[in-house]
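Here is an idea for our session: we take a single protein and study its fold together. Once you have written the record down, we can walk along the chain together.
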Amino acid sequence: MSERLMKIPLRSTITGYRDTDDKKRKERGSITLEATIFLTMFIFFYLLLISLIQMTKAQVILQYAADQAAQGISAYSYALTKAGIVEKRAATSEKAASFRGHITDVLDAVEQVENTLTTGGSVSDLVDAAEDAGQKAETLAGDLDELGENILSLVKSYGADVCSQAVIGEIAEPEVERQIAMLSGKDADQYLKDLGIADGTDGLDFSQSKWASESVDDMPVLEVAIVYEMEIKLGFIELEPRKFKVCAKTALW
């Protein structure tokens, strides 16, 4: 038995051990690399999921707060509705919107004339474009009294938009903050910052809100709009902030 063992080449035995050891090292290295890749992907998608959850949470809570604010402002507007102010505001806004539409038609017609000239269109095409522009300009002008009323309605509507946006912001902002504090049980400003909303409550923009500037089924509508910016961070990776908007509409009775 001892003679047979002595006949096994020592070099072959050592080489066999080395080959086995190298194979094990390669297998361990391969497993480590695969685990690293998988762990990195898992962490990335986990952070992405957390970010999506925060965005959804912010959207839901702000939507609810905007709905409550819209209902409150609608209730405050009841006295103005009874006084006929809401109806007059809606009529002025509708007239201004119609006038703006006519202005847009005239500008489009003038642009068509310019395009015909610059592209070397035929004389007949130029004449047709010029006649169309003239007809639309004549329709826009109408008589001087009507033109003056339309311009006045445009100015009134613009002023009403600016005032209503400021008023809605003053009323809606504290109500939104109150609703957020009630839902979260935390300070509204800090809670929004924790969700990733830039500047917290200071980052909520109400300037796109509207009061009786449009009607649905002959019913003036209030719209409370909140525009905000979300900071998106995936660990040490910080993406470009994204803007979001929630709207709450209700009729002004």
The longest strand covers residues 219-230.
